[in-house]
Write a structure and sequence with these properties.
Keywords: Endonuclease, Hydrolase, Nuclease. This protein is of the alpha+beta class and about 300 residues long. It is about 35% helix and about 15% strand. Helix 3 packs antiparallel against helix 5. The chain starts with 5 loop residues before the first helix and ends with a helix.
């Protein structure tokens, strides 16, 4: 199988708002951080020797070990098994990761993590989204304290209970853990589901729904009725989705353009002055239109479009 090369992995990290840490010339692995991730991720430098058939592309913290099965559900994501160490990737360059002995007989310990390779940009993007979802403090588990507040209302409830000398019993704690575990599971499935949703749109449209551009890396899966408002069925309905180039996607999401019931473009007065410079003009229309699209497009015209 062919995997994304190192430079494409790095480019995707940057597009996802990861930023470089330290001097990459002085370390064995290049470190990247994200504001919504507690741990760094590392891109290992190419190995000059040819001991291994494939190099590590991206290494994450061993803190994610319990989530490996979920991560590997993402199509196009693979673990790399190198040499006789099949579980972990060891490297002193992973400076923020914990250490352990590479072999039982070793005296010293080495930083370690889990390595992954990606068959395409979609799999890498979904992988990074899932890492952030798993690591998000809102869905963290109770590993360090019995009952942690995960939002303002929950904190106020706990503070009120404490001020009244109310003791949280084991049933309350177990119930709270169960709710948060269920919420985390739903978010994980949604993150993986969005990868399948994009594939469904690629199969339906075959390229940009307007221009016909068929370069996958230049296409965005855009909901007509936004994800945060749509119900569970609407979120995964391919007729609630358009595959668009970035300029068209942003204009659509911001309500600067929409489509009529026959698929012709409607451009906001706010965009008409600069529309042509962005490739957005009156002559554009959807390549095809199913009757199932019409209700979604009407909703967008009423609720999102800015005339």
């Amino acid at each position: 199988m062919n995997y994304l090369p190192r430079n494409e992995v790095i480019n995707t990290l940057i597009k996802k708002k990861f930023y470089l840490v330290g001097n990459p010339e002085r370390t064995k692995a290049t470190q990247y951080r994200h504001n919504n991730l507690r741990d760094s991720v590392y891109v290992k430098k190419p190995n000059n020797s040819n001991r291994y058939k494939i190099s590590t592309h991206l290494v994450i913290s061993p803190e994610f070990e319990k989530h490996l099965d979920k991560i590997l559900e993402i199509p196009g994501v693979s673990r790399l098994k190198v040499g006789k160490i099949s579980e972990y990737r060891y490297n002193t360059g992973y400076t923020t990761f914990p250490k352990r002995k590479k072999e039982p007989e070793n005296v010293s310990e080495t930083n370690y993590g889990f390595d992954f390779a990606f068959s395409n940009n979609t799999s890498l993007n979904t992988f990074l989204d899932l890492l952030i979802t798993l690591d998000n403090s809102h869905i963290s588990t109770f590993s360090n304290h019995a009952l942690a507040p995960h939002n303002k209302n929950e904190k106020q409830s706990i503070d009120k209970a404490n001020s009244s000398n109310t003791i949280l019993n084991s049933e309350t704690i177990e119930s709270s853990i169960s709710v948060i575990d269920t919420e985390r599971e739903a978010l994980i499935k949604a993150c993986i589901g969005q990868n399948s949703y994009r594939e469904a749109l690629l199969n339906f449209w075959g390229g940009c729904a307007v221009t016909g551009c068929d370069e996958p890396d230049m296409l965005r899966a855009s909901h007509i009725k936004p994800w945060k408002i749509a119900n569970a069925t609407e979120r995964l309905d391919k007729f609630n989705g358009l595959l668009l180039t970035p300029n068209l996607d942003v204009a659509f999401d911001q309500g600067l353009r929409t489509f009529s019931s026959d698929g012709t473009i409607c451009i906001s007065s706010r965009l008409k002055r600069v529309g042509h410079s962005l490739g957005i003009h009156e002559g554009l229309c959807l390549k095809k239109l199913g009757k199932q699209h019409i209700a979604y497009l009407e909703w967008h015209r009423i609720n999102i479009f800015k005339e």
